[in-house]
Sequence to fold (436 residues):
Amino acid sequence: MSTHDTTQPLAGHGRAIVSALLRNGPQSRTELSAALDLSAGSLTRLSKPLLEAGIIVETPTENVMGIGRPSVPLTFHHDAYRFIGIKLTKTHVYGALTRADAEIEQLVAEPLDASTPDAALTQVARIVAELEELSPVRVHAIGVAIGGHVRDRRFLTYADHLGWSDIDLAGALENLTGITTVVENDILAHMQATHWFGEGRGTDSFALFTIGAGIGSGLVAHGEIVSSPDAGYSLMSHFPLETRALARFERNAEASVSGLFQGAPATDATAAGLAGSGGTAADSSTSAAGRHVAATQPGLFEAECGHHACATAMLTLQELELRASRVIGRPVSFDQLMGLAAAGDPQARGLLDASGYALGTMFAAIANLTLAGRIVLGGEACELASVSADAVNRGLHDHRDHRAADPEIRVQDPNLALWTRGAAVIAMHDTLLGRD
Fold:
């Protein structure tokens, strides 16, 4: 079976047919005709070259009633295409070989060998070569998702976490691999995958909000992603979340720190939580030096950005870990903080509930400002929503009219490697459909 020449994206009605099948899955000719406002005859004529090229295929279904002709839906031929998605972070490079429906067939995760662009891209090219060897058909394009600002899906304007700026990232990888490459901001790429193949599928309106190393956000309205040239600037990072209720959380946390300063012993829960999450009971004690450093720190909810109780301060991994370390008196990772809370440690529980309340406040703001009926929460710290579910609900309901329906909250898998799907999807989109 022949395949489409992917150097020429589809256009016109062919593009509309393929786009509808990619977004919505298999559809009968009747459903597709209605969705695209085409007559049955026009759809038959327009879909014929796509069928002959192997871009779409018929998928006969069982005629359970035994009456009349069985339905023969049309679907996109996902298995005829392969794409490679790359997700670059400050410390790791992730790579995935996917079909056109973003189904991951092979996944690679490696620590970043070196943070210089030449060394990092050489490592990426090696991973691409390994994945290409495993592909049953030729790889049509590479997608790269990176935290930073990207221009024209080729040029990296800046990536602060890597210290990179003004790089023709697509051109550099094309020279190394010989494969067409597309580059996009990681949140925008993840938004595309969520919209077409993830938790945003099946609705014309939803918001994406991500918490982890940074803050990310996106919006789909009337079935289309809302975007602008500024979308890569993480514009919700410093959204203010300070409220009177959150101030009480902060006072309680600071009071618990004062108790530690006075030499209060670690609770049994603190010791058990640290031991159960990679630490030891001895780790739970607070040294005099540690108490002095903590005592001279700014307010618990003040971030390095200088803002008090903004989204970055309350919902990013770095700030959560710094705050927990100050309260507990030793370095504490996010996973250890979760373990402490699970063990019943009141300080860990208070810190997570404070961030949970802030997250609920953010959910209310998103729903109030965008009218989105569904909010998808992603990122490495998204488990916060389930661990502090009661606090999240309090934050949501305290800042939303009681007559308004709660937005539907869907929480994604926190595994960052899965963000390779977004990179692959933008490569697929550009290859098959071109730029919007």
User: Anything to note?
Assistant: The mean pLDDT is 87. The domain at 202-411 is CATH 3.30.420.40 (Nucleotidyltransferase; domain 5). The two ends are 29 Å apart (CA to CA). Residues 346-370 form the longest helix (25 residues).
